[in-house]
Amino acid sequence: MGLASARAVLRRHPGWRVLVLDKEPRIAAHQSGHNSGVIHAGIYYTPGSLKARLCVAGSAAMLRFCEERGIAHARCGKVIVATSEDELPRLHGLLERGQGNGVPGLEMIGPERLRELEPHVRGVAAIWSPNTGIADYPAVCQAYADDIAAAGGEVRTRTEVVAVRDRGDTQHVETTTGDVEARLLLACTGLQADRLAAMAGAPADLKIVPFRGDYYLIRPERDSLVRALIYPVPDPRFPFLGVHFTRKTDGRVWCGPNAVLAFAREGYRFEDLDLDDLGDALGFTGFRRLARRYWRTGLAEMYRDLSRRAFLGALRRYIPELTDDDLVAGPAGVRAQALDPEGRLVDDFSIHRAGRAIHVRNAPSPAATSSLMIGDHVADVVDQAL
């Protein structure tokens, strides 16, 4: 989000001085480099929301951008599969939502057409989304950074923000590599978004709660089980999509993820523990209310995280011939999910302006897909602020 927004501002205002700060030694070290790589079409999101509007436009823009810049991508298509009759009402509702959002090419298909598209998948019906794609998002981020540099901006890594002071006409930013004075501060800090917002004096009404998602990989000799993207019908009781199959741009097939509370905001392994991060989540009233409401779902996700057999069982709902020998341990990602004090997961993108500071406080999926459009949207907010 930060790179896309900086790029959009410089394209709109050539000659402006724009500096991007990143505490890590490389860009895309967290959510941007640890996601499934899917270019979402815009099916799932509430009509009229920022997610719906920016994803549908952003999907087409991302495919064009990857084509123009020679970035690995594919318009491979996706099936959303109902495995039982009781999922059909939700599947039809999802089709109506996607069509209402203006997603092109959506089609309800039966078992015969599903087998043509994905021969090893079993289901009673599915939505076929031909314009869903896949991309190498770290390469997209690098292309954004290259555009920033070409326009005279700077991307400075290994630079952590430690304090922000509002001086009226400017924002004074203290960092580990020196102080910066700027007319405007834009914070797109993902897993640390609430902390940087609080540092800059924004309302403390949202808290970031990290959810880790683990993947398995299908062994290369068996990856013919999956041709493209295979997704479940989402469960409305929980904000995550559930385990699915993703053929990446390198040809490997990822299976997952689950969604469990991460014990560290930047912890990609089960054993990663940061007591400050964990205490921050457990001590938040909103998280405790969420846990009381969804404890059964949370326990099921945790069990599946700890039990390879349970994980395999979830995958076999869609591909019955998948076996334990077909799977190897894969990567993991951590999703920065904003939560309000009532225990509600913030569904839409949250872009908040406070004087000469703008905070992107909630930007989970489909933020990567939508990043070019989010950049333009943030550039509009920048123009209003200045």
Q: In words, what does this structure look like?
A:
- With 386 residues, this protein is an alpha+beta fold.
- It has a domain at 207-226 and 253-345.
- 33% of the residues lie in helices and 25% in strands.
- The protein contains eleven helices and 20 strands.
- The protein has helices at 2-12, 50-69, 88-100, 111-117, 137-150, 193-199, 275-282, 285-293, 295-306, 308-316, 367-385, and strands at residues 19-21, 38-39, 73-74, 78-82, 107-109, 125-129, 133-135, 154-156, 161-166, 171-175, 178-182, 185-187, 207-218, 229-232, 244-247, 253-256, 260-261, 327-339, 350-354, 357-362.
- The strands form five sheets. Strands 4, 5, 6, 13, 14, 15, 16, 17 and 18 form a nine-stranded mixed sheet that branches.
- α1 (2-12) packs parallel to α5 (137-150) and α2 (50-69) crosses α11 (367-385).
- It is globular.
